[in-house]
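ingest -> validate -> predict -> emit
validate: passed (alphabet ok, no gaps, 734 aa)
predict: started
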Amino acid sequence: MLVVSPPSRRSVLTGCAAGAALAALPRFANASSGTDVFDGVTRVADAAALADNPAYAAWTGPYGGVPAWDRIRVGHLKPALLQAMADQRENVRRIVANPDEPTFANTIAAFEASGRALERAGAIYQVLGSSVSTPELRDLEAELDGQLAAHANAINQDADLYRRIKAVHDAAEVHGLTPEQKRLAWLHHSAFVRAGAELDPQKRARVAQINETLAVRFSAFSQNLLADEETWITVHDRKELEGLPSSTVAAMSVLAAERGLDGGWIVVNTRSSVDPVLTYAADRDLRRRVWTAFVNRGDNGGPHDNKALITEILALRHERARLLGFESHAHWRLQNTMAGSPENAMTLLERVWAPAVARVHEEVADMQALADTAGDGISIEPWDYRFYQEKVRKARYDLDQNEVKPYLQLERLREGMFWAAGRNFGWRFEEVRDAPVWHRDVTVYRVSNADGSHRGLFYFDPFARSGKRSGAWMNQIRSQERFAGRIDPLVSNNENFVRAAPGEPVLISWDDAATLFHEFGHAMHGLASNVQYPALSGTAVPGDFLEFPSQMWELWLRTPEILSRFAVHVDTGAPIPAELVRKMENARHFNQGFATVEFVASALMDMRYHLAGPGPIDPETFERETLAQLGMPGALVMRHRSPQFAHVFSSDAYSAGYYSYLWADTLVADAGEAFARAPGGFYDPELSRRYFDVALTAGNTRDAAETYRAFMGRDPDPAALLRARGFASEGAAG
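emit:
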C-alpha cells in the first residue's frame, strides 16, 4: 500500500514504487495553468509537435485542468520529458544568474516553480508505468530513467543554486519569513545537503553516478517482478477448486477468458488472486503450487531473477550513504523521520516481535491439533496456514469468512467510504464523465465541500489486469497549492481486485475491504491539504507519518454505521446480521500472530539489509541466515521476500522504511482509542473536526511529531499498539 507522489516534492531521493527515477527530481510546482517556460529555452523537440503533445502541454478543461489521458500515447512521453527537463534547467540557470541578493521570492519560490512541465509529464509517466505498462513503455523506462536521474543530479548538486538556497535558509529570521516559508526553505536546504551539495566535486560526481545507476536498477527490478506477476497457474479440473466461493471461481474463469484460454480457470500470480486459493482451496497440492509460484516471484533464475540486482542496489546505497557522511543507508533515510534513527525503529519492531512469534506458535499448535483430529495426516506448512486458520476461526468463533464475503460488495463499500467522509468532513462525491481516464476501468469523482465548492478529483482504478503492477497504491497526480493561485488536487486509488463475471457484483474479502479503506485514507490526506506551497502539500510527509491517515481510515470500516448501511447481502440486500458482526468483533485479535510476524519479519529484514555494511550481500544467504537468527517460525514466510520486495528495491521510497507501517500503527492505535472514547465515537463532530484541521490539512508545514501532539495534546502511547493487537491487556492508555 504505497503512495506515489508527484515527482517529486523535494530535491532528494525519496522515491516511489512506480517511475522510480522521477523520485530524484528536484521540487517543481504542479499547477496546470500559467506560464510554464521562460522565453529562449533550448528546444529539444519540434515546437509545433510539442504544442500538440498532451504529455507536455498545460492541462486544460474543467476542474482546474486535467491530463488528457485519452490522447496520450507512449510516443508522447519521451519528447515531453526531454523538453520538460530542458525547461527546468533553463529556469534554474536564470535563478542562479540573478544578480540580486538571494531572497525567498527570487530563489526559494522561483525554485518551487521551476519545473511545471516536468511535473505534468512526470505524473503521466508514473501513472502509465504502474497502471497500463506495455513492452514499448518498459523499453522507454529503461532508456529514460537514467536520464531523469542525471537531470536530478545536475540540479541537486548545483553549487551556485545551493549557495542561494543556503543564504535564504540561514537568514530566514532576517527575511521575516512566515512559518510555512521557513519550513519550505528548511526543506529545500535539507534536501540539497542530503543529496550531497556540500561534498567536494569528486564525491558529488560519484553520488550522481550512483543515483543514475540505481534509477536503472530500480526499473529493472520492477520490470522483472511484473514479468513474474503476469504468469499464472492453470486449473483444468473443477474438483481442484473445491472449497472456493462460487464468486471466486467465476472470477478465475473470467481471468482465463481475458488471456484467451478456452475453458478452465487460472490463478494469476498476484496477491488478490492467490490469497483466496490459499484460504479456501481444499486441494492441498493446488495450494502448494500456488504458494510456491507466489513466494518465488523474482527468484526463479533466468532473465527475470532479482537477486543480483539486490546485491548491487545494497552496495550502491551503502557507498552513497558513506559518501554523504552517514553510517549507513538506514541512518541517511531516517534522519528527518518521526523515528529519527534506525535504533528507534528497531526498538519498536523488536518490541512486538517476541510476543507475535509466541502467538504464532500458539496459532500453529491450534491448527495442527485440528488437522490431527480430522485425520489429515499433515504437518502445517506455509501453504496450509491460511486454510487451517479459517477452520480454527470457525471452530473457535463460529465465524466463517465465507459468511462475511457476500456482504462485502465493492461498489457498496466504496459508497460507504464516501458516505463516511461526508459524515465526518462534509464532503460530497459525484461521478463525472468529462474527465478523461487512462483505462476504461477508471471512474472519476468530483469531490466538493459541504458548501458545494470544489475540492478535487478522485480517480478510482480498482481491478487487476495485464500491465498493471500488483498491490495497492495512491497516486498524488497533482498536489494542492495556493502558490500559483488556487490549485486543487487530483488523486487516484489503484487496487488489484479480481473482476467478477459479466453482470455480477464484485465481492471482496475483509482484507481487501481494509485495503480499499486504507488507500482512500491516503486519498483523503491528499484531498484535504490546505497549504501554500506544493512541496509541503498533502502526502509530502515523512513515511512513518504518511501511513497514519491511511491506516487510521481502516478503523471506520468496522464501525456499525458503515456495516449496517453498506455491508448488505449481495442477493437479499439485507444488512449484515448483528450476530455476525459480534462474531467478527470477538475474533478481532484472531490470527494477529501471523499478521504481525509476516509484516515485522519483512521490516526487520529491510532494516538489517541497510545496516549490514558494504557487502557484497548475497540476498538468498542473508535472508535465510537472518530469519534463522530471528527465530522465524517455519510455518509462514515474510509478507515480502527479498526478490519481490518492491517497497524496498524498486525505489528508495520505503527502503529502510518498511517499519513505517508499524510506527504509524502505533499512532493509529493511540488515536483510535481516543475516537472510541469520544461521545460520538468515530463520528464525533469535535474530534473529527480536530483530526481534519490538524492532522489532515497541514501537510509538511510542521514537524510530524508536532502535528500529532497538536492533534492529541501529547505524544503517542506506545503500549496502545500491543493492546490493539491483543498482545497486552486491554485498557485505557497509561
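Confidence is low (pLDDT under 50) at residues 6-24, 26-40, 729-734.
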